[in-house]
């Protein structure tokens, strides 16, 4: 289509994010594709005709969901990721049940594995040879390669407009979603946000925050002083029968930023165990060792994971502590919950740890204050009141 000039009073850039394409030989072959929109999905479905084996590159949310659905339509699947774990937003130990679920359903999961090259065999688009590493390199044949290794901000328009860019090429905005040009706003997966817990600039492409940013930009354009508080990274997906969700900062994020934390794990059921269909989950909560303020939470399991992480997301947004979790009053009936909700249980364990640490610290300080008196008494005893055998060898 021909280009033309369009005037505006206010402009909103919402160009989103584009899939990352690795700079490797064969990445542009016809049967190598990524999934961004419904048009891509139609293309992939067409390309699947006659394909028996599919290689998915990237074991994140998109990659794992692709792998599951390919298995459900009868395809053999190899899932590759350069990282040592699936689902990078989770801490490594919380990702283990997801990896086990993928393998239990016949997916060839290869972690700590780099994609080195893709090449045609015999000139056929559906005959590809994938070479992976690190050393020693190995190869296998596949019919289709789907890329899901992440996204980058689609910032071409913003860059050509001369707008200031931030981390990873995101468009820098203020709390009203205004760019460096006050007449231009930017929202969604293209913008830089503040990570809610460490208050560091980040790129967090998620649908929920994108929708809020759109409302805030519209408010500000029409004179309402709405502000964006930051992104917590609340995420959820399901891989076969395994649900995983997270909100706030992960343990590895807190370590990277040097933020002190404590953590607890609880292993409750979705509702009372004696009622049919109760499903187990593991809930991890990270919190400040001084104030008890909640810093992050992750859960993996079956039913009820979404509900608990939504509660934890609300708690983080409200600046709540683990002591507040002890007092939360959740709805209870045997089909829906236990009398002590998993969030309550996490609060009880975390609060108990903090109270125990403070009691031990108080006792230690008391002993420290009494130490000079104790030393003085011992010296007095040795000098004046010692028994005859002190300092002598017995015969």
Beta-strand content: 15-25%
As laid out across the biggest beta sheet, the strand order is 3-10-4-5-6
Number of helices: 9
Low-confidence stretches: 385-395
Number of strands: 19
Average predicted confidence as pLDDT:
89
Report helical residue fraction: 25-40%
Largest sheet: 5 strands, parallel
Topology record:
Layout: E1 11-13, E2 17-19, E3 32-34, H1 38-47, E4 53-57, H2 61-72, E5 76-80, H3 92-104, E6 108-110, E7 114-121, E8 124-133, E9 138-142, E10 144-147, E11 151-153, H4 156-160, E12 184-186, E13 193-194, E14 201-202, H5 207-221, E15 235-239, E16 242-248, H6 251-256, E17 262-266, E18 281-287, E19 294-301, H7 305-317, H8 322-327, H9 342-384
Parallel strand pairs: 1-12, 3-10, 4-5, 4-10, 5-6
Antiparallel strand pairs: 2-11, 7-8, 8-9, 13-14, 15-16, 16-19, 17-18, 18-19
Structural overview:
This protein is of the alpha/beta class and 395 residues long. Helix content is 31%, strand content 23%. It contains 9 helices and 19 strands. It has helices at residues 38-47, 61-72, 92-104, 156-160, 207-221, 251-256, 305-317, 322-327, 342-384, and strands spanning 11-13, 17-19, 32-34, 53-57, 76-80, 108-110, 114-121, 124-133, 138-142, 144-147, 151-153, 184-186, 193-194, 201-202, 235-239, 242-248, 262-266, 281-287, 294-301. The protein is globular. The N and C termini lie far apart (110 Å).
């Amino acid at each position: 289509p021909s280009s033309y000039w369009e005037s505006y009073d206010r402009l909103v850039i919402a160009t989103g994010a584009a899939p990352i394409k690795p700079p490797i030989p064969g990445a542009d072959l016809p049967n190598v594709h990524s999934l961004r929109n419904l048009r891509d999905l139609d293309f992939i479905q067409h390309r699947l005709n006659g394909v028996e084996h599919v290689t998915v590159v990237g074991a994140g949310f998109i990659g794992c969901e692709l792998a599951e659905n390919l298995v459900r339509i009868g395809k053999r699947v190899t899932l590759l990721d350069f990282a040592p774990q699936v689902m990078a937003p989770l801490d490594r130990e919380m990702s283990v049940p997801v990896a086990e679920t993928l393998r239990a359903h016949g997916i060839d999961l290869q972690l700590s594995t780099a994609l080195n090259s893709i090449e045609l065999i015999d000139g056929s688009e559906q005959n590809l040879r994938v070479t992976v590493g690190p050393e020693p390199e190995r190869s296998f044949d596949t019919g289709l390669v789907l890329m899901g290794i992440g996204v980058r901000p689609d910032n071409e328009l913003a860059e050509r407009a001369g707008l200031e860019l931030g981390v990873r090429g995101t468009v820098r905005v203020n709390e009203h979603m205004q760019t460096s040009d006050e007449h231009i706003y930017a929202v969604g997966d293209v913008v830089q946000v503040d990570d809610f817990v460490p208050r560091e600039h980040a790129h967090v492409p998620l649908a929920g925050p994108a929708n809020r940013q759109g409302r805030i930009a519209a408010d500000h354009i029409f004179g309402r002083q709405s502000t964006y508080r930051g992104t917590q990274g609340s995420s959820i997906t399901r891989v076969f029968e395994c649900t995983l969700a997270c909100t706030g900062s992960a343990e590895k994020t807190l370590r990277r930023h040097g933020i002190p934390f404590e953590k607890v794990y609880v292993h409750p059921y979705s509702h009372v165990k004696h009622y049919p269909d109760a499903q187990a989950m593991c809930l991890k909560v990270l919190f400040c060792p001084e104030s008890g303020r909640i810093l992050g939470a992750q859960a993996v399991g079956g039913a009820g994971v979404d509900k608990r992480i939504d509660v934890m997301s609300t708690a983080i947004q409200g600046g709540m502590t683990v002591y507040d979790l002890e007092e939360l009053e959740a709805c209870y009936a045997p089909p829906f919950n236990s009398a002590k909700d998993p969030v309550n249980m996490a609060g009880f364990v975390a609060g108990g740890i903090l109270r125990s640490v403070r009691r031990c610290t108080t006792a230690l300080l008391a002993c420290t204050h009494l130490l000079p008196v104790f030393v003085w008494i011992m010296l007095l005893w040795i000098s004046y009141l010692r028994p005859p055998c002190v300092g002598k060898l017995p015969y």
